[in-house]
Specification:
Blueprint: H1 3-9, E1 15-16, E2 51-52, E3 55-56, H2 57-68, E4 72-77, E5 86-87, E6 90-91, E7 102-105, H3 106-114, E8 118-120, H4 128-139, H5 154-164, H6 172-198, H7 213-263
Helix pairs in contact: 2-7, 4-6
Amino acid sequence: QPRAAVRSRARPHGCQPRARGPSVASTPAARCSPSCARGGAMSFCAGAAMRVNTKDTAALLSDDKFLAFEEEVEIIPKFTSDDRVECIKGKLKGPFRAHAPVKVPLWAALQLDRLSLCSIELPYWLLEEELKRLRDDEKDKQNADVFMPVPEHYIEIAFALLTQSKAYAGDARRKSVTVLLLREIIEIRRKKISKGQKELDVNEYFDVTNMSAAELSCFRGRSLRTLDIYLDLLQARRVTEKEADEEVEGTTQQDLGEDSSSRL
């Protein structure tokens, strides 16, 4: 599908809740820009321009981000509505009750949070204690060749909550600690991926179990590019060997011809 079509789908669907209080206005979505792959939590993907099925790594990451915005997160609404919130693609789960937790897609949570109609509850895996536990498990020598279980879109969700929500408003320390822990975790997992790529010619397979969507996109593009280079080198060697054999054969025939002429 053309990337323009993907972008158009990635717009948060304008919604208008039938609720007491301020209405939710329709606004454009945060576009699935590949810039997220060039800095911040996803900087390990910088410079990855390999193509997979006509898409480069940036386009694959853009698709992953679009899917991540459909993941559900828990919010605490600040309004009450007896009806479901109507949106372009359908209706959000309801009814909504002020101060009663409810789960909605990430794009809707960010939209409501921006308009101060809700507060977003951080996922349990994004809490400081859980991030420290995950970091320690990833660093454990017994887990040197395996990846610890993580949410499929943990990078995209964490990046969105850190940069596009008020979840960390007024708590600069917690936000800073979260960013540092995420960077540590991503870097540890990136090193495991790099090690696996270097050993592709030694091992029969590389276990990608528990890799996140963004990590798989980067690994897929780079590993296929590596395999393409191997195939090109093999083809070049075969051509060289064939040319060498033809040259030897031609020289042998010439020597036999000269020997026959001398005998005559």
